[in-house]
Amino acid sequence: MGPAEFHIDNQDLIKIGISIVCGGILGIERQYKNKTAGFRTIILICLGSTIFTLIAQRAGLGVNINVITGVGFIGAGVIFKDDIAVSGLTTAAVIWTSAAIGMAVGAGDYLLAMISSVVTIVVLTLFHILENYLDKLHHDRLYSIVFDDTVYDRLTELEERVKAHNLKVRIVRVNKQDDNLHAAIMVTGHRKHINKLNQELLTTPHIKSF
Q: Which pTM does this prediction carry?
């Protein structure tokens, strides 16, 4: 049995073009928000998934599901985690979705690919507006505070000040360093109350920085 012969026809070119368009739609949104995986990256992921699917189909393997595993490594690369917070999850999800859209294009399901691209943009834009509104009503702010001494009562006093602004407070971490008390606290509540708290912290005694 001889080696499989591969050639490029008009349908392949159409698939590649649609893949670039779909990837570009998602990539523009990520680039506009200055995310790690921007315009070119999302296009290449979508295009790469399309090409892998085309190759797999030409080789008689159907749709190459292993693309999902490979894209997972790229997605993991844009997720950053420190001791307290995690970032990059949305960009990783966009990478994962763009790969699925690329595979749909490669399989010849153009309608599914285009609808999926539009739906994804709707989720990223309109839902982002809703998310901002909810965040305004129930906003989380992580403070890293350095006191000018090591008296633990300073932290207790700070908790009372926070609660006086109708905010909830949770101590995330406390430690002593260079003869200063360091604390990380999570404050939750309406954004306008948090802004007022910021102004008060600027004049709060014994707070070296925050």
A: 0.61
Q: Supply 27's token pair.
A: 């990539």
For the chain, first and last CA: distance in Å? 71
> Under CATH, which number does the domain 139-209 receive?
3.30.70.380
Tokens 């932290």, located at residue = 155
Weakest-pLDDT range from 91-100, 126-135, 151-160, 180-189? 126-135
Q: In the chain, where does the domain assigned CATH 3.30.70.380 lie?
A: 139-209
Interior angle at CA 81, CA 121 and CA 69, nearest 5:
60
Return the SS3 of 103: helix
Q: Which of 166, 146, 164 is nearest to 154 (CA)?
A: 146
Does an H or E element contain 209, and which? strand 207-209
Q: Do residues 151 and 181 make contact, with C-beta atoms less than 8 angstroms apart? A: yes
